Amino acid sequence: MGAFGVAVIIVIAAKTIAWLVQKKLRNAGLVDAIWAWTLGLLAAFYAAIGPGDSSLRLALALMGATWGGRLGTHLFIRNWGQPEDFRYAHFRQKWGDKADFNMFWFFQFQNVFTLLLSSMAFVPVAWRADAPPAVCWLLAAVIWLASIVGEGIADTQMERFRADPRNKGKVCRDGLWRYSRHPNYFFECLHWLAYVPLAIGAPWGWISLGAPLLMAWMLTKLSGMPMLEDEMARRKPGYAEYRRTTSALVPLPPKSS
């Protein structure tokens, strides 16, 4: 069985576990953590079996596993013991008696994007025979570090805001959230860009560009911002003004009220 076949088994097994847990808890939020952990595992898997340069594969394993471990753990802690995320709660209510059946296939459908992301970002690096130039190492390290630190700061600022009862019903404008409505999503896209310098010059290395583009499309057009922003506009009176004055993704100075 080829590497991709094993990757397919890994993602199907991971999402099946997520489905079994949600079936017991009636809370599908755990799938978000398992998604991140699975991608981190795939980075380590491709690094372990790839025939490429050993130093490059070690870097891939550390970069992917660290990112996936941090994000997955953050999402697990944030969602555990909390009401079901409004997205999954909406689907559960909409699907009614077919909720468990539909949720299983919805989880498995997400694997299409998991496999695309991991294949585009990790495979060109793990299969590269030679090490990239020093400038590419440096660029990858700077992008990766900025993405990890930036996303961690954004997550911490939002959790601190939510933990304060005085902020109930208010819009978070603290720190990075003053300059972007979704700074965590911005740094998420930036993370996938970190593998591009390591793939430059490798056979089929250009496909690594697809990973940050796919993630940006998913977050801005598919599953991230569209549903979330509609929900925030409904729940928080000040969100319409926040949306008008604050950049959607890339951190920029806010517009004048």
From TrEMBL:
<dbReference type="GO" id="GO:0016020">
    <property type="term" value="C:membrane"/>
</dbReference>
<dbReference type="Pfam" id="PF06966">
    <property type="entry name" value="DUF1295"/>
</dbReference>
<feature type="transmembrane region" description="Helical">
    <location>
        <begin position="192"/>
        <end position="219"/>
    </location>
</feature>
<protein>
    <submittedName>
        <fullName>Uncharacterized protein</fullName>
    </submittedName>
</protein>
<keyword id="KW-0472">Membrane</keyword>
<dbReference type="InterPro" id="IPR010721">
    <property type="entry name" value="UstE-like"/>
</dbReference>
<keyword id="KW-0812">Transmembrane</keyword>
<feature type="transmembrane region" description="Helical">
    <location>
        <begin position="134"/>
        <end position="154"/>
    </location>
</feature>
<feature type="transmembrane region" description="Helical">
    <location>
        <begin position="28"/>
        <end position="49"/>
    </location>
</feature>
<feature type="transmembrane region" description="Helical">
    <location>
        <begin position="104"/>
        <end position="127"/>
    </location>
</feature>
<keyword id="KW-1133">Transmembrane helix</keyword>
